Amino acid sequence: MLKDAARRLYPAGWPRTRLRLRLVVCPFERLLERVPPPSRVLDAGCGGGLFLALLAASGRLERGVGFDPGVGAIAVARAMADRLPEASLSFEHGVVEDPWPAGSFDVVSMIDVLHHVAPRQQRTAIERGLERVAPGGIFLYKDMCTRPRWRELANRAHDLLAARQWIHTVPLPTVVEWARDAGFAATHTERINRLCYGHDLAIFERRD
Ligand SMILES: C[S@@+](CC[C@H](N)C(=O)[O-])C[C@H]1O[C@@H](n2cnc3c(N)ncnc32)[C@H](O)[C@@H]1O
Fold it and tell me: Is 206 exposed, middle or buried (0-12, 13-18, 19+ CB in 10 A)?
């Protein structure tokens, strides 16, 4: 179903091939099921908009806003949104270190972005995302594991090749601690191993 949606929403070519590789590596189906329909979703570091596209295609999206620094990525995301005129989707350029798009959202997602952010800015990035969560909403966080070491190294090698970047992975307990200090509790955490990669998923909700 996810591959079919990607084929329908992205034209043939390198962007689609790249996004279909994302579907092989990243357990999107496990992320989608965490989003209650219909949700207003803010996706930080949205890349080509794949997560919002899949949410729209699966009928979970009321409104989607994505932002990313990649000029090409946002162009791909906007072209995808043009293919889904019935969905309320918008995409803008931006980084998690700068002020985020205005508004509050049922779901704020940050999928495989934090390890691209400079360590001194990572805590701020998480806090900015939490600030955008509407009452009763969730912060959906997914990033690469730091343990076991061989899985962490596999991801590091992947990013060195694919993004030409030496990444900065953060142990999940550290992110949980930052969120706790900001008034949020991790209501769900999960390790998902896929191929040689290890994914840490966490859902945060505001503490009463
Ligand atoms: C592995 S991709 C993930 C894209 C998308 N979240 C997904 O799951 O398909 C990492 C994304 O993070 C974006 N990124 C890198 N540094 C960023 C930053 N400082 N703020 C926001 N996004 C950033 C990149 O442009 C890239 O699109």
Answer: middle
